[in-house]
Amino acid sequence: MSRYLVTAAAQMGPIARSETRKDTVRRLIEMMREAKSRGAEVVVFTELALTTFFPRWLIEDEAELDSYYEAEMPGPETQPLFDEAARLGIGFYIGYAELVMEGGVKRRFNTSIIVDQKGRIIGKYRKVHLPGHKEPQPGRTHQHLEKRYFEPGDMGFPVYRGFGGVMGMCICNDRRWPETYRVMGLQGVEMVMLGYNTPFDHTGHEAVNSLTLFHNHLSMQAGAYQNATWVVGTAKCGTEEGSKMGGQSVIVAPSGEIVAQAFTVEDEVITAKCDLDMGKAYRETIFNFALHRRPEAYKLIVERTGAIPPAE
What we know:
Keywords: Hydrolase. This is N-carbamoyl-D-amino-acid hydrolase. The chain is an alpha/beta fold and 312 residues long. It is built from 10 helices and 14 strands. The protein has helices at 21-37, 62-66, 79-88, 146-149, 178-185, 206-209, 212-226, 280-284, 289-292, 295-305; strands spanning 4-11, 42-44, 91-102, 105-115, 121-126, 159-162, 165-171, 191-197, 230-236, 238-240, 243-245, 250-252, 258-261, 268-275. The radius of gyration is 19 Å and the shape is globular. The two termini are 32 Å apart.
């Protein structure tokens, strides 16, 4: 018996620095309604979906920096999104900048959550693989200061039960690292939701930057296939505050095939009828971890070379 989950990816065009939370939430709600009208049961929004991509600037004023973060979720400005999700009976994934106070100390994370069809948070994740720099780099038109504005995630890669299956999350640069998918794959993940804000000038090497969109799909397709899972990748795209960002949001099947793709660099909703049982054939044959995977081989290499062991 197949378990179908009609899934939407809600790609976002640019968010201006002057755009308010109210304006942005209104856009998200419009796409949520469109997704629901197409029969979607869950919609995947992007990374830092509530604001412009602020790590492109050096922000030294503490109050200004704090204005990009959410101290609670939902809060007064984001509650309408949760209310509309509950009214429509649709779940969602969303990324945002999280600010928490612990022992009088501010902690900042690049965070995402999964919300069920009743508007309840059922899962949370904090971005592990932070790209970019802690200090501004000379000669760059736009900075990439994620290491300055966020701590590495401290939750690992958990999975959650929801929408009739096993759901996982990651954010942007996480998608490039095979251990992201493998840790969730070892927990039986059936769908990985992720959002990204990827500029075309992120490496400083023109030859590498020219392959940005190819590498984007390559990493998600490989992660999906090698771990027998659906992957839903949603972009923030277009030219935002002078920075050109990649789009091509996709829904990828456990076979590694792209089954839906966005073709604009604006707000755009794509959908696919995802069979959560599709990965079963791969998990029972090619990627039967219990039968074919040999973690002891990695440990042998560590013993012989002194290399750092991989996470189990």
